[in-house]
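Q: Here's a chain of 343 amino acids. Please give me its 3D structure as tokens.
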Amino acid sequence: MNPEADPKQPSWKPSAAATLTGMQDEKTTPVGPAARDAIQAAFDASDLGDIEQIGGLFLGYANINYRVKTSTGLYLARFCRAQPDERIHDEILLLRSIQDSRFPASYPIARSDGGYISNHEQEKVMIYDFVEGETPQVSTDSAHQVGRALGCLSLHPVPMGYSSTALIDIEDLRKFRAEKMTELEQYPEFRDEFLEQTASIESCLPFDLPRGLVHADAFPDNTIFRDGKLIALIDFEDSCVDTLIFDIGMAIIGFGYQDEVMDRALVAALLDGYQSQRILNSAEVEALPAMARWCAHGMGFWHLRCYLDSPNARQHQRIHELQRVVRGLRGKDAETILAAFDQ
């Protein structure tokens, strides 16, 4: 967190599931004895029946999720490894504030003592509704529904006591650039483009635009559909107060491409869904291509920073993908976004 950053400066930190459309991970979380003990402790603290089965879900980059079947139903157990307690409490506060509106989400379930976090050994475990469904195919219909949900979220007031801002901003990139040049020299395939793209996006920031609640990671694998209908937007751990069109920029990366090519019809459907709830002003329209570029570059930075700490083929591929997306958003893809408003 960067408390001295400009409050108008949008920022970004991706969740565990941040991937490009069509690049979902196949590996699932193993269920070892330590995980079973932590899950058991969380359910012992809740009135949710006896555990019958535990299954690992798709393995991401940060938090770990399990599907838990008990004598009373199905639940999601999340091991909260990415965020400090204050951000987890803010996530709970936000979700509780929108629950009565029937916003499509997976909601946390309180323990018997009214708390939400079960601490066991080194793990912080939360239990959520398990929402049955599937990750959607990217289509104009799914893009429209997700856009509408994000538009609804933008209208919700910030809950009293909520303080989360996003975890990465342009100052983090500047600091990284200043301190990690030696390490970056080892990876010329990333270095020059990262430095050039950072210098280019700096000229677009900050965005002096409307702010409010954003989900901050509306990718296909953070949505659950059933029978063609959006049932839940999930993984609110990165939600925060930020520039509202940040959510649209991120969703364009997730729902605006087919076969790695931006699709004007998909972007138009996303925008139409969002604007069915909140109409963008002219400044927001003009800034949206730059915002999408900032989202992609910020995402690439997060992966690059992790990669320098622990090089691996998975993130090597992500960085290349996202740098390619940024290149497109500096050219014809920016024009496609603006043209989508007229479709």
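Q: Can you summarize the key feature?
A: The chain has two domains: 33-129, 140-340.
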